[in-house]
Amino acid sequence: MTVHADRPTEPSVAGATATHDAPPPSRRLGRSLPAVAVLVLLVLLAAVPLFLAPFEANTLSRILVFALFAVSLDLLVGITGLPSLGHAAYFGVGAYTAGLVSIHWTSEAPVPVLLAAVAGAVAAAATGWLAVRSGGVYFLMLTLAIGELVHQLAQSLSDVTGGSNGLFGIPSVRVGGEPLTLAGYVYWYILAVALLGFLGLWLVAHSPFGGVLRASGTTSRECGRWATPPSATSSSRSRSPAASPAWPAACWPAWSASSTRATPASPPAP
Amino acid sequence: MAGWFDANLVSILNGFAIGSLLFILAVGLSIVFGMMDVLNLAHGAFFLVGSYLAVTFVAGESWGGFLTALGVAALIGLLAGGALSGMTEPLARRPILDQALLTLGISLIVAEALSIIYGNDVFSVPEPPGLAGSVDVAGSSYPTYRLMLIAVGLLLALVVWLVVEKTSLGALVRASVADREMVSALGIDNRKVKFAVLGVGSLLASVAGVLAAPVYGARPGLDKTILILALVVIVIGGLGSVRGALVGALVIGQVESLGRALFPEIASFILFGTLALVLIVRPRGLFAGKVAH
């Protein structure tokens, strides 16, 4: 997947098959280079607010959110081989959940993110149950339809979501009771959540479960695109990857709290 | 029962009008996919191009404008379909997702270009002269234009069915749906068949856009709505089947129209529920042909 090209922090997802072999001693130095690069990149990313203006920090926050979204889509498309065009639906579910929780209940740090992830997982389980009954191009069309349906739902439930105007006045995320209003602090918060997300996805991709996902993706590709995936694995596999886009989405209101609103149009098409 | 029928006659007729439009749209999409594995997600964008052409040529003012819009839309649709056929050619051996992403990207570009040209306003297009009024149908008055739409849809369905089932050209198309490799082994260039079918399919989409303009108007986002309806139609009908597309279109037309009239709150869910039901009972659609892929 092209997703990896600009994600040096996640080389493992692309090169996953290579990392299973034990490295010969001569290559150990070569192996440690990427680790050093990742470390340098992390330090650079963490230091960004110290030398960049708020606007640039905001833009980088946005990039982090969408990077996590892209990596989460890769777990579904690249690894599991399910071509989903409705991924943005769960992003939207997460964004609205985090926004609504922040407005009506609390914006205390982990709560909106965790609830958004739970809501995304529930939405994905409900729709994935149906989508995995189809395969190949039918899956593609179904996920496109699910995405569009969720979009229409967000626009029609204007009492809850604010319709096409979106949610107004989402309060800034709070850490330890203190609202994060400065762009640099918001950036650090999003960086922390995004890194947790990357780590989680990396662990899933390298766990035995990730192996099952990869294997089921490969076999159904080998067997031809009309092969119906076995229901049992496929519903579990659609559930967990699909929960992940809600995670970056939960950062979205945090990022947009001061400047914009969570509108149905804000997440891009898939 | 008769009372219910009378009360909902307008909705039922609306359902047939929507169904006619959806058939014109979906039949091209369905055959192109059945034949060539090209899922053309730009289909809805071609439809929207037709709708905006109806706005440009002030289709409602005179028959001249309406027919000009139809002609230009047909030409543009044909050319766009041909161009799309050329663009998907290098992707022929790649996974379906790659082609879908290409056509989705094209549809986003077209939609964005339309919104740059025409702005984000909602346009309404009046009916051509003589069809603007309404007539009495079994006691209720009904717009003449929509009755004509039903007639045009059924006529086109008949023409498409005759061409696909009764002519040698149609036999070629059906053979390509059933077994593409065999057809090419018999010395027929698949690319030409694909070029022609994609061209005609896109032509039907943009013509449907012009025909639908007096009913739906032209607005940004209409392409997505229409594309989803067409996809639902072919999922229900089964890919690559004319009969399936017709039945699917009529079913979805009724579901859409009656659903919105009787249960406006949950209309989208009824549509989705129908889809879910068909997928659970017949995962490949109601009329899926024997496809040798």
Automatic annotation (TrEMBL), chain B:
The family classification in the record reads: Belongs to the binding-protein-dependent transport system permease family. LivHM subfamily.
Give this protein's Gene Ontology molecular function annotations.
Answer: transmembrane transporter activity
What protein does this entry describe? Amino acid/amide ABC transporter membrane protein 1 (HAAT family)
Q: Which species is listed as the source?
A: Blastococcus colisei
Q: Name one GO cellular component term.
A: plasma membrane
KW Transport (keyword) present: yes
The answer to whether the entry has keyword Chloroplast is no
Where is this protein found? Cell membrane
Q: What is the lineage of its organism?
A: Bacteria, Bacillati, Actinomycetota, Actinomycetes, Geodermatophilales
Q: Name one GO biological process term.
A: amino acid transport
Q: Which UniProt key words apply to this protein? A: Amino-acid transport, Cell membrane, Membrane, Transmembrane, Transmembrane helix, Transport
**Topology versus the membrane:** Multi-pass membrane protein
Q: What is its main location?
A: membrane
Q: Which Pfam families match?
A: BPD_transp_2
**Where, by residue number, does the polypeptide cross the bilayer?**
12-34, 41-60, 66-88, 100-119, 145-164, 195-216, 228-250, 262-281
